[in-house]
Model the fold of this input.
Amino acid sequence: MEKNKFLLKIIRYFSIIVAIFIATICFNYLNFINSNIITNQDYILKINPFDNFYSLSNKLNIKKFYLRIFLKLNKPNFVLQVWEYKITKNSNISNIIKQLQNPINKDESLTILEWWNIFDIDDLLTNKWLIKKWDLKNNYQNYEWFLYPDTYNYNPSNFVLNNFVNKMINNFELLVKNKILYKLNDKEIYNLLILSSIVEKEANIKDNPNEISIIAWILKKRLKENWYIWADITVCYNYKLTSHECDTKFITSHIYDKNDYNTRTMYWLPKTPIWNPSYKTISNTLNHKNSPYYYYLHDNNWKIHYAKNIEEHNSNKNRYLK
Done:
């Protein structure tokens, strides 16, 4: 009997302690959700890659335990975007979550470079947290060669991939097709883009822009006379590599692979372009410069050396590629 009374006392005391504990948590939680977290002035909150709603505990110096309870009971119905947000003063946690639906409305810019392919562009947009990896490649690969290299403005708060793609295609239409390709049929345009994409990487455009038209003519002559065009830069595209991954080591190790892109092992052009060529390269490839040369190479300083025949070319190799 005495034991039963003792147990009842323990249970009573334990129940009181639990009740006090629960009441304390409830009191603190109610205080948490009703208190102003941002008090003195408006605050710019930056959301970084890999942040989530639980990251607010560190960013706003609030109790993680009560934040977790709030988020469990009030699960946000939107995805938190990487960007900056204005949080107004006298905001409690509920107000803050609502304000995280509206990123600060300002444009940023990104540059699509010449000689990039769709894997480069997809990589850039993924790293900017604008798309999921391969969203561009999987949905727009048929339009790859019309994604004109340029600098584009975008707003992360309302970025739509389809709209961005349309901007690049429209730029190609306005800046290239309507200016210099309007006399060509679709097949001629496509073959020109393939050849231009090769010339884009084979020529040293920055230091010697005249190379474009001379190399374009050399490759055209090889095609016309049924040669292999021997442009090593075509090797990489078959392996879905970005321009950074397509390095000399990779090219050398795959130089004689047989596929639809290796111009050392197949006649004619690859079946698609390999990069996005610039207006300058497309124009100079279209309007090539006649020359007596059939061969070219770049030395270790990227200076070009032309040759009229294989003997001169081999001599240049021995002289400039030591």
In short: Residues 111-291 form one domain. Residues 2-34 form the longest helix (33 residues). The beta strands are 43-47, 83-87, 108-111, 151-154, 295-298, 304-307.
